[in-house]
Amino acid sequence: MADKEISQAVISRLPRYFRYLGDLKEKGVERISSQELSDIMKVTASQIRQDFNNFGGFGQQGYGYNVNYLYDEISKILGIDRQHSLVIIGAGHLGKAIAGYTNFTRRGFVFKGAFDCNPDLYGTMIRDVEVRPIDEVEEFVRANDIEIAVLTIPKDQAVPMAHKLAQCGIKAIWNFAHVDLDVPNNIQVENVHLSDSLMKLSYNISRYEKTIRP
Question: Is the dihedral of CA 27, 29, 33, 34 positive or negative?
Answer without folding.
Answer: positive
